[in-house]
Amino acid sequence: MKKIFLSRILFYITIFLLMTELPASADQAAWVLKADADKAVQMIDPGIEIRTFCQPCGETSWTSVIVNQVELKNSSGQYFQVFINGQGVDLAYCYINKDGKWKNIAIILGLDVSGVSEFIIDEGTPGSSIHKTAIMWDDELNRVYGLLRSKLKPEAQKALKNSQLAWIKYRDLEFENIDNIYSNFQGTMYSPMRIDHRNQLIKQRVTELQSYLDLFDNY
């Protein structure tokens, strides 16, 4: 009898743990307050493109969705869900083009989400080698920057942050310059050349930060 009782207890504990783990990789901002849902609907006009990208789900590339219809549906309580083309969406995994960058809608709204990037890289076709290379260098930059920052004292961390913010502004301006230059040329060969030119810019920054990191590793 005791064994049966203990087995049931373990069973319910397991179910509870599984349920508490689900939100981290599933619903984060699927059901939100009406004020936030209304703001999301105002952003998502019919005819525009949004991109879905669920990193906690293990996705490695985004999916393009052309919005034909957008609406709200109410749950049994005070929460609402945004439906795009008849399908309920989680705003934590939806990105919209804002000021030329694909930005996470949940983050724009100030919602508490985790495990998702604020931006997705608009480089090449999802899954292509060009796209994977762009993501690789962006991830490597974040990795090296984080490692270097962890080795610095507070004042040096502040200086590094200011330097990185200044570099990001330079990067964005240089990206615009690269795009404008390559817009003068027609032909399929120029698109990968343009993207490679942009990737080289990030690679240079990675190399620069890595050289600082090597000083600590070799000290």
TrEMBL record:
It holds the Pfam family LprI. Keywords: Signal. InterPro entries: LprI-like_N. Residues 1-26 form the signal peptide. It comes from Desulfonema limicola. Residues 136-209 form the Lysozyme inhibitor LprI-like N-terminal domain. This is Lysozyme inhibitor N-terminal domain-containing protein. The keyword ATP-binding does not apply.
